[in-house]
Each structure stands twice: as structure tokens, then as C-alpha cells.
Automatic annotation (TrEMBL):
Domain of life: Bacteria
Stated name of the protein: Cupin domain-containing protein
CDD domains noted in UniProt: cupin_TM1112-like
SUPFAM superfamilies on file: RmlC-like cupins
Residues of the (S)-ureidoglycine aminohydrolase cupin domain: 43-110
Annotated InterPro entries: RmlC-like_jellyroll (IPR014710), RmlC_Cupin_sf (IPR011051), UGlyAH_Cupin_dom (IPR008579)
Length: 114
């Protein structure tokens, strides 16, 4: 039987990364990502973590986020700054443009749908 239950928890060696250099506004943010689901139809799920810094973001996909730890400030171009912290959940919709600033190393669960 194929299980239809997927636990989102870090396991194994994470992928290491960072924002593209031209997107960085301040700091030297570094990412760690534990992908637990990657489907050819454009569905992704896992855990992402970033160290402090600020960079430009732009979304062409839907992303549900649930903050597990840390503090970040997400600001949409022309909009208000929103502080997110442990326990907060939100969706970034296609077309979102702005900045993500990690104040305290932030870890989130995510589900992305292209």
C-alpha cells in the first residue's frame, strides 16, 4: 500500500544555498532546505531555514509558510512590513514582490504549488 501521509520534518543532509548575489540588500544570509516532497507536477514541501540578512523576493508560485522559529520581516513592494515569528502561518501568492529580512535565524515549513 502506498502511504498518503507525509510528515514534514528535517532528515538527512540539507541542501545549502543563498539568495542570488544581485538580490542581497544586507548581510550574508545562508539557506538550508530539507525537501520532503518534490513532484514533477510542481508540488514541493519541506523545511527551510535562513540566517540573518535581507534580500529581494519575487514569487511566481503559491507558497504556504508556517514559521517554526525565529523572526523575519516580509515587506511587499508598496505595502506594509509584516513581522512573522514562531506560530505564524501565511500564503505568498503569485506576483508577490518585495523583501524578506531575517532578524533571527528563521525556520519554516513550506508547501509550494507552481
Amino acid at each position: 500500500m502506498i502511504s498518503r501521509f507525509l510528515a514534514i520534518a528535517p532528515s538527512g543532509t540539507p541542501e545549502e544555498g543563498a539568495p542570488a548575489p544581485e538580490r542581497i540588500i544586507s548581510g550574508e544570509p545562508k539557506f538550508r532546505t530539507w525537501n520532503v516532497e518534490e513532484r514533477p507536477n510542481g508540488l514541493y514541501a519541506g523545511i527551510w531555514e535562513s540566517t540573518p540578512g535581507k534580500w529581494r523576493i519575487q514569487y511566481d508560485e503559491w507558497e504556504f509558510c508556517h514559521i517554526l522559529s525565529g523572526v523575519s520581516i516580509i515587506t511587499e513592494d508598496g505595502g506594509e512590513a509584516r513581522t512573522v515569528k514562531a506560530g505564524d502561518s501565511f500564503v505568498l501568492k503569485p506576483g508577490f514582490k518585495g523583501t524578506w529580512e531575517v532578524i533571527e535565524t528563521t525556520r519554516k515549513e513550506y508547501v509550494i504549488r507552481l
